[in-house]
Write a structure and sequence with these properties.
This protein has about 240 residues and is mainly α. It contains seven helices and two strands, in the order H-E-H-H-H-E-H-H-H. The relative contact order is 0.08.
């Protein structure tokens, strides 16, 4: 019965670690796909612009949607990662519940939704100011193509500043809270460490305990020295 209980406890402790590994793998895959799409589409636009190759406006709109969206995805993802660290440090008991695999998938969808909102606003202003014949024209594909009036440029700048302000507030708030938790942990260690060191100091006066601790320290030093000497075998 004891072995069965021990195995069940080990399985219970391994499940959160497995979930965290799956979540980290999903985030890495998401970041790699995002960077690949952004670099691939950006390189295509640079090549087309360098050779002055004109394409139809409707095709430029499709390419620009990916570029604008994944340009915002990068800082939004960093902000989401900061919130994840805030939850892990400030609310460790709820970290496994809030940062599960399903929550990660929802978070990826939310990141894309939040990043797609500026594209909708910028393109909506463009759609409202041009005629249908404009989409059939051949022009060099750049983001400035969609800025026909000065007020559109001002709105785009306001959107970028708004996103920057919100993300900056979230990141500063998260790190301030993490710093407070670190200070509280240091304050707790000031009271805990002396109580932990007292049994150790008094235990060193016992000859048997001191002899066992000395042998353990010698064994560790011997193993480290052996691994340093024969590094390939230890690896």
């Amino acid at each position: 019965f004891y072995m069965a209980d021990n195995n069940s406890v080990n399985v219970f402790l391994q499940r959160p670690n497995d979930r965290m590994i799956i979540v980290q793998i999903l985030v890495i895959i998401f970041l790699c796909i995002k960077m690949f799409i952004l670099l691939f589409v950006s390189d295509i636009l640079v090549i087309l612009t360098y050779f002055h190759f004109a394409i139809q406006v409707w095709l430029c709109i499709i390419i620009t949607i990916f570029v604008l969206m994944y340009t915002f995805v990068t800082p939004v993802t960093l902000t989401a990662m900061t919130l994840e660290r805030y939850v892990a440090i400030c609310m460790p008991l709820r970290h496994g519940q809030l940062c599960s695999t399903r929550s990660t998938m929802y978070c990826i969808l939310i990141i894309h939704g939040v990043s797609f909102a500026p594209c909708i606003i910028i393109l909506s202003m463009f759609f409202a100011t041009v005629s249908l014949n404009f989409y059939r024209k051949y022009m060099i594909c750049t983001v400035e193509l969609f800025i026909l009036y000065r007020w559109q440029d001002q709105v785009r700048s306001a959107i970028h500043q708004f996103y920057f302000l919100i993300m900056r507030i979230i990141i500063i708030f998260s790190y301030v809270q993490i710093t407070k938790v670190a200070k509280a942990l240091l304050l707790c260690l000031i009271y805990i460490v002396p109580r932990c060191l007292s049994p150790l100091i008094y235990g060193l006066r016992d000859e048997k305990f001191f002899f066992a601790l000395k042998n353990l320290f010698c064994c560790v030093c011997h193993v480290l020295f052996y691994c340093k000497k024969r590094k390939p075998l230890c690896i």
